[in-house]
Write a structure and sequence with these properties.
Strand order of the largest sheet: 5-4-6-3-2-1-7
Distance between the termini: 8 Å
Radius of gyration: 12 Å
Helix content: under 10%
């Protein structure tokens, strides 16, 4: 089991993280799921932008560069929406809505997934 940890704030973003790092896993992502329970997340890599088509709930999304530094944040992105593109991002972490504010994650924080 992998976790996402904000080293800058010394707090956990998710204790159970799945990795989507090949075409079909990235394409599917969390589409058609009913919810994303607290403590869970999905890392999509490579990724500079996400869409929320065929989603049933909002998400928080943290975009990070190759060093794990946060280069973009999208809070409570709703079903049917498209996120901004973060050109410096190499991956994103999809999290339950409210995670960004609950953990006080900000641009420049360093996130580790292990």
């Amino acid at each position: 089991m992998r976790r996402a940890f904000n080293q800058t704030k010394n707090c956990q973003l998710a204790s159970d993280v799945l990795i989507a790092d090949h075409f079909f896993a990235r394409l599917k992502g969390l589409m058609f799921t009913k919810n994303l329970p607290a403590g869970r997340g999905l890392v999509i890599k490579p990724c500079t932008q996400i869409h929320m088509f065929w989603m049933n709930y909002a998400l928080d999304v943290v975009f990070v560069d190759s060093n794990g530094v946060v280069v973009g944040l999208v809070e409570r992105i709703a079903p049917g929406k498209i996120s901004p593109m973060f050109r410096k991002a190499t991956s994103c972490i999809e999290l339950p809505e409210g995670t960004i504010s609950d953990t006080r994650t900000t641009l420049g924080d360093r996130i580790e997934v292990n």
